[in-house]
Amino acid sequence: MEKRVARSGIGVSVWHRCEQLLSEELPSRDYDSWIRPLQAESEQGELLLLAPNRYVKEEVESRYLRQIEELVANFGEASEVRGVRVVIGRWEHELGAPLRAAPHVTRAGASAASAESNGAAWAANASGSSTPVAAHSSRTVKAGLNESYVFDNFIAGKSNEIAKSTAMHVAARCQDGTAKVEYNPLLLYGSVGLGKTHLMHAVGNEVLSKATNVHVMYLPSERFGNDIVRGIRTQTIQEVTQRYRSVDVLLIDDIQFFAEKTGFQEELFHVFEAVLGRGSQVVLTSDRYPTEINGLESRLQSRFVGGFPHELDMPELETRVAILQNKGAAAGIDIPDDVAFHIAERIRSNVRELEGALSRVIASATHHGVPVTLELVRLALRGLFAIHARRITIDHIQRTVADYYRIKHSDMLARGRRTNIARPRQIAMCLAKELTNHSLPAIGEQFGGRDHTTVLYACRKVAELRETTTDIAEDYRNLTRLLNS
Questions:
Q1: Cys staple from 290: which of 123, 249, 301, 313, with CB 3.0 to 4.6 Å?
Q2: Residue 200: is its pLDDT beyond 90?
Q3: How many other β-carbons are positioned within 10 Å of the β-carbon of residue 298?
Q4: Looking at residue 316, what is its pLDDT?
Q5: Angle value at C-alpha 25, between 324 and 83, nearest 5 degrees
Q6: 121: how many CB neighbours lie within 10 A of its CB?
Q7: How far apart are CA 223 and CA 236, in angstroms?
Q8: On the CB side of 38, how many CA atoms lie within 13 Å of its CA?
Q9: Spatial CB neighbours of 348, under 8 Å, sequence gap ≥ 6
Q10: Sheet-wide strand order for 83-88
Q11: pLDDT at residue 202 above 90?
Q12: Closest by alpha carbon to 327, among 301, 303, 359?
């Protein structure tokens, strides 16, 4: 049997740093499913990533191996790590001994279920070794909250200032048990990585920091489903649902998870009615407006939007710059304006990916012992920028145009005909026709279900305006350059 240097050596040290960056760059569900289960070993200069089964192995190899190899190459010791290979792990428990827990990084937003299954939390420090992280307060842990998500470190801009102020108002009202009907439930919806979960946790953390007799519970939808299944299997479903009905502030994350799950929806409906019936506050998040979630019962849809639904959009350029500089300050690293703007102009998908990109830059600067400069950013993020350059989608075009004209992304899909909305929408349609391979009907469908003739008219109108109006011609050139940069 081949000899391995288990969980030690330069390769493992590099992996801990890579894992920290991946935890910030990847969606939480992807990280928890495919990266967290991996354990690292060094063998003759090769980094071995041990997967618990072939499903994890195949997924990592097909989706993440190239990204991991690029991260490894960014660290100073990369010359001593000749390659990266994913293998099926030979875990100790297969030989009758208990599984030895490997150190892992803490992840902002990781579910309480994941925290419970992984035992004590760890965090990778700058040298690659691992040290225990201070435990959350007992009330925060019991509520399932991430205590790092608070209002103070949520950077608000035009796109999300209403969501933040409303969430703060809800938290203030919950502290004295006077949840207001017009804000109950509070529904935060939008694409991934825009801060919905951050604001949800911030509500809970704010309530717990000010009130001593308020029962708060954060509930990822998957955990609700697992609890329901376990309750049915063990014939304790009444006890399970009663625990949820007794809370004062119930935070339910990712309600789109319940689509097509009729049994879960039935139990959720009764819990929801009971919580609202006793005057408790409910806060929800979703990646879509509830009426757009296929397979979600109409009675749940109507109740979810019956309080205060609010969409979070991608922050505008200035707010993205502020987010980057705030994150740099928190890490003790100065992020020059030109660097922040360079990154913010090229990464527009979501805040999580934006922060993950900066983490990669900071890690590269720290381990090379150099300041953060434009040249360093171009080297550290060359692969990521290349991916974004190829990622021209209709949604990306819509958000870029909305950002440029300082309107909301949702305005692109609405039926309004005001000139300040209609003209950017027409330009976005024209760019979608020019820069993507979608048909006219497909483009119209993604602009609020419009007919293909509307898209055709928009393309002709913009082409005419580019010939006769200097401002429109300049705007179109700027947007094309932004989308291709």
A1: 301
A2: yes
A3: 9
A4: 78
A5: 125
A6: 17
A7: 16
A8: 34
A9: 314, 320, 388, 396, 399, 400, 403
A10: 5-6, 39-43, 46-51, 83-88
A11: yes
A12: 359
CA nearest to 109, candidates 17, 16, 36, 56 = 36
- For residue 250, what are the β-bridge partners? 217, 282
Name the CA radius of gyration of the chain, rounded: 24
Total number of residues shown for the chain: 485
| Structure token digits, residue 403 | 């950002």
pLDDT score recorded for residue 112: 34
Residue type, 369: G
CA–CA separation, 164 vs 148, rounded Å? 16
pLDDT tens digits along 338-394? 888 888 877 766 788 888 888 888 888 888 888 888 888 888 888 777 776 666 788
Q: Is 4 exposed, middle or buried (0-12, 13-18, 19+ CB in 10 A)?
A: middle
Please, are residues 171 and 206 in contact by the beta-carbon 8 Å criterion? yes
The two three-digit tokens of residue 422, written as one number: 């209609």
Neighbour-count burial of 36, counting CB atoms closer than 10 A to its CB (0-12 exposed, 13-18 middle, 19+ buried)? buried
For 60-69, the CB contacts below 8 A with 24+ separation are: 60/34, 60/35, 60/86, 61/86, 63/34, 64/22, 64/34, 64/35, 67/22, 67/383, 68/18, 68/22
Q: Report residue 195 as tokens.
A: 């801060």
- DSSP H or E stretch at residue 131: strand 130-132
- Give CA–CA dist 251/272, Å, rounded: 11
Angle at 335 between CA 332 and CA 338, to 5 degrees: 175
pLDDT tens-place string over residues 211-269: 778 888 888 888 888 888 888 888 888 888 788 888 888 898 888 888 888 888 888 88
pLDDT tens for 38-79 read 888 877 778 888 887 776 787 788 888 888 887 777 765 545
Give the Cα separation of 188 and 62 in Å (integer): 33
The residue whose two tokens read 């035992």 is 119
Question: Which of the four pLDDT bands, split at 50, 70 and 90, describes residue 401?
Answer: very high
Q: How confident is the model at residue 143 (pLDDT cuts 50, 70, 90)?
A: confident
Tens digit of each residue's pLDDT (9 = 90 or more) over 408-443: 888 888 877 777 888 999 999 999 888 776 788 889
Nearest CA to 4 among 37, 38, 50, 57? Answer: 50
Nearest to 377 by CA among 331, 335, 317, 327: 335
- DSSP track, 353-378: HHHHHHHHHHHHHHHHT----HHHHH
Query: What gap in Å lies between CA 188 and CA 162, rounded to an integer?
Result: 11
